[in-house]
């Protein structure tokens, strides 16, 4: 399992993912779940993945292969005219790979090879856009009503995002909110783990404004984690007491 969040702000996009992959408590590994490609001054595209590792790595490998020689390949993310087309390319590729693996292993295996993805980015002359891609290849786009997407182990960190999100918030506040969301998920589920990957994309810049890997020794993450736990305890103490009859 994993946990990834893509968030749309007025200023741009903020994305964070964990890196843990496990096949049981005795087989835990670290794999990158976030990838991005850019054409300086023209576009930046990010893909995050959750689900079957073989499936997601196959999708990323094929996207990488297409992007290395876009003039010689069809369906390169670096040549797609719109972000909608980018999402379509990733969705179709994901569906094809899952269908192929299910066909080779029997239709019942489709769920075994399932995966979902978040696609985010901006192409020059257009708005930043954020998409959630389902295993079937179809997708939905972020909007004012649904301004962020989660994939993987979503339930523990979602309440924090719902309560704290504001589309006008700064990048710094958004990173703090995501850090709390991930810290809560890490503490509740062993299938999500450090290090975390963070990427900030500012509107109309077409290059990462900020990119960082956050590990266990990261002072900011440790400070937020400790402060959040203390703040929760103080908030609980400050609530009205229940009186037994």
TrEMBL record:
The keyword Hydrolase is annotated on this UniProt entry: yes
Keywords of this entry: Hydrolase, Protease, Proteasome
GO cellular component terms listed in the entry, alphabetical order: proteasome complex
The keyword Oxidoreductase appears for this protein: no
Listed GO MF terms: peptidase activity
Regions annotated as coiled coil: none
A GO biological-process term: proteolysis
Matching InterPro entries: Ntn_hydrolases_N, Proteasome_sua/b, UCP009120_prtse
Protein name: Proteasome-type protease
Organism: Novosphingobium panipatense
Origin organism lineage: Bacteria, Pseudomonadati, Pseudomonadota, Alphaproteobacteria, Sphingomonadales
């Amino acid at each position: 399992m994993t946990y990834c969040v893509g968030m749309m702000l007025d200023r741009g996009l903020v994305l964070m993912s964990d890196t843990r992959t496990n096949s049981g408590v005795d087989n835990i590994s670290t794999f990158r779940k976030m990838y991005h490609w850019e054409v300086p001054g023209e576009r930046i595209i990010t893909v995050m993945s959750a689900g079957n590792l073989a499936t997601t790595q196959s999708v990323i490998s094929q996207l990488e292969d297409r992007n290395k020689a876009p003039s010689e390949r069809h369906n390169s993310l670096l040549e797609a005219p719109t972000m909608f087309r980018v999402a379509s390319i990733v969705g179709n590729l994901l569906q094809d790979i899952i269908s192929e693996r299910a066909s080779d292993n029997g239709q019942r295996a489709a769920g075994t090879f399932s995966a979902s993805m978040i696609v985010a980015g901006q192409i020059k002359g257009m708005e930043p856009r954020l998409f959630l891609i389902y295993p079937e290849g179809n997708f939905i786009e972020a909007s004012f009503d649904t301004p962020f997407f989660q994939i993987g182990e979503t339930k523990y960190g979602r309440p924090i995002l719902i309560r704290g999100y504001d589309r006008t918030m700064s990048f710094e506040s958004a990173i703090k909110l995501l850090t709390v969301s991930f810290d809560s998920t890490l503490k509740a589920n062993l299938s999500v783990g450090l290090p975390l990957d963070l990427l900030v994309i500012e509107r109309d810049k077409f290059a990462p404004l900020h990119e960082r890997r956050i590990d266990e020794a990261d002072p900011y993450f440790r400070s937020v984690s400790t402060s959040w736990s203390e703040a929760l305890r103080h908030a609980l103490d400050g609530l009205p007491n229940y009186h037994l009859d």
